[in-house]
Design brief:
Blueprint lengths: L4 E6 L5 H8 L5 E2 L6 H11 L12 H15 L8 E5 L7 H7 L5 E5 L2 H14 L16 H9 L4 H13 L7 E5 H6 L1 H12 L16 H6 L23 H7 L16 E2 L1
Parallel strand pairs: 1-3, 1-4, 2-3, 4-5, 5-6
Helix pairs in contact: 2-3
C-alpha cells in the first residue's frame, strides 16, 4: 500500500457500496464492499489483550506492527500503486487506532436518515420473500417489528453502526472524519465525489455516474439477501413511499444527529 489507505464506514444502506462502486472507476483506487479486515482486526485486538496469558510477551509496539501487517497482508495482491479504501462499519469506532497506524488516513462515513435505512432493509426482506436472511438469523417467522428491534439493538446491524458513528463524531479524531449523506451522493454525485477527493487530498477523477457497475451477488446469495450489495447503473435519487408502519418511523425520525449543526460540537465536515 505504497500510496496509502483510507476507509469507508458509517451506516448500512447509506451509500457505502455505491461510493465504492464509483471509486472503483478510478484506476488509481481499489475499493469494494465490506472486507474481512475489520473482523480480523477486532479478533487480533482481543487475542492480544489481557484475556490471554501470553499477552505478557506482547508489547504495544508489537501490537501496532501486527495490526499494520494485517492490512499489508490482506492487500498484498492489490497493485502497489493503488490507493486502498477498506470498508467496514467498525472503523468509526476505531479512529484512535487508525490514527496511530495510518497517520494520513481519512474515514468517509456514509449516513442516511435511520428510517430510510430500515425501510431499505425491510424492502430487501419483502422482495426476497421466499428466502430468509442471515441478517435476522435466517428466521422465517417474525414481523417487521421483530426485525426492527433486532436491527436497532446494541449489536444489531443498524444499532452497532449508529453507535460507532456517534463515537467517532464526538471523539477526538474528527479531523480525519467526513460524513457523506446518501442524499448528496445520490442527487449530486459530482459534488459528493469532489468533496471526497478534496478531503483525502487526491487529484479529482472524471467519473461516469450513468454507468456504475458493481455487485457482489455470490456473497449476497450466501447470506440469503440477494441485492444487498448491488448498485444501480445510474446514480440517482429514487423517490418512493415507505413500507414501514408510521409508529416505527416516529421511533427513529429524530435520530439523524448530523443534520443538526448545534450538535456538531467538533465541526465535523458533513457533505
Amino acid at each position: 500500500m505504497q500510496n496509502g489507505i483510507h476507509f469507508i464506514s458509517g451506516l448500512p444502506r447509506a451509500g457505502s457500496t455505491l461510493l465504492a462502486g464509483i471509486l472503483r472507476q478510478n484506476p488509481r483506487i481499489h475499493a469494494a464492499m465490506t472486507s474481512p479486515v475489520g473482523t480480523l482486526f477486532a479478533g487480533l485486538l482481543a487475542q492480544m489483550s489481557q484475556s490471554s496469558e501470553f499477552s505478557v510477551f506482547i508489547t504495544d509496539a508489537q501490537r501496532k506492527a501486527i495490526l499494520a501487517g494485517l492490512f499489508e497482508s490482506y492487500y498484498r495482491d492489490i497493485q502497489a500503486e493503488k490507493l486502498v479504501f477498506d470498508t467496514n462499519r467498525l472503523w468509526c469506532a476505531k479512529l484512535p487506532a487508525l490514527a496511530a497506524l495510518f497517520p494520513q488516513a481519512k474515514v468517509i462515513a456514509c449516513v442516511r436518515d435511520i428510517h430510510w435505512v430500515i425501510d431499505s432493509l425491510e424492502r430487501l426482506v419483502q422482495r426476497n420473500k421466499f428466502e430468509p436472511s442471515k441478517i435476522f438469523g435466517f428466521e422465517g417467522a417474525g414481523t417487521v417489528y421483530h426485525r426492527v428491534d433486532a436491527l436497532l439493538g446494541m449489536n444489531g446491524m443498524v444499532g452497532s453502526a449508529y453507535n460507532a458513528l456517534k463515537e467517532g463524531y464526538y471523539g477526538e479524531h474528527t479531523d480525519r472524519l467526513m460524513l457523506l449523506t446518501y442524499e448528496t451522493l445520490a442527487r449530486a454525485p459530482a459534488q459528493a465525489m469532489a468533496a471526497v477527493y478534496d478531503f483525502i487530498g487526491a487529484p479529482p477523477f472524471a467519473h461516469d455516474f450513468d454507468h456504475v457497475d458493481y455487485a457482489e451477488d455470490e456473497f449476497d446469495a450466501r447470506i440469503g439477501t440477494p441485492g444487498l450489495h448491488r448498485v444501480a447503473a445510474k446514480v440517482k435519487q429514487v423517490d418512493r413511499q415507505m413500507v414501514l408502519p408510521p409508529d416505527i418511523v416516529r421511533r427513529v425520525e429524530n435520530d439523524s444527529f448530523w443534520s443538526d449543526s448545534k450538535r456538531n460540537l467538533r465541526g465535523v465536515r458533513v457533505v
